[in-house]
Amino acid sequence: MNYHLLVYGVYLPVTVLLTVWVARTLFTNGRTFLVDIFHGNEQLADSVNKLLLTGFYLINIGYATLTLRSTEVIGSYQASVETLSIKIGTIILILGGMHFFNLYVFYKLRHKAQEYARTYNFVVDK
Which residues span the membrane (predicted)? Predict the structure, then answer.
């Protein structure tokens, strides 16, 4: 039996499903932050949110396909599971890192938007 095909056959669907799940979660919940960052401009927030979603898919699925290849010898079911755990664990760590990176970017953008609003309100009040 070709255990490489078994690993590939499990790895790709699991990776794609995980990526889609994380991307949808970020897309749905990130909208609120973007609307706040763009001062209630929902059309701009939705547009940026869709662009972020597209970039997230491209980066993560692109990386997953780049790491698909396995050069080590896989001669048993045990080796298949071990290889899968390394590959899927790596993808999960990358997805988590991307998630926290997105949160950090949203935080910084929101902070800048709030500073701008405070400055603008201060000037208007005078």
Answer: 6-27, 48-66, 86-107
φ and ψ at 118, to 5 degrees?
Answer: -65, -45
Contact by Cβ (8 Å): 3, 48? no
Per-residue confidence of the chain (126 residues) as pLDDT tens digits? Answer: 788 888 888 999 999 999 999 889 889 988 888 888 888 889 998 998 999 899 889 988 898 888 888 888 888 899 999 989 989 998 899 888 888 887 888 788 778 877 877 777 655 544
Contacts of 53-59 with CB under 8 Å at 24 or more apart are: 53/23, 53/26, 53/27, 56/19, 56/22, 56/23, 56/26, 56/98, 56/102, 57/19, 57/23, 59/98
What lies within 8 Å, CB to CB, of 42 at 6+ separation is 35
| pTM over cut 0.85 | no
Closest CA to 87 of 2, 20, 21, 9: 9
Instruction: For residue 46, give the nearest of 34, 57, 37 by alpha carbon.
Output: 34
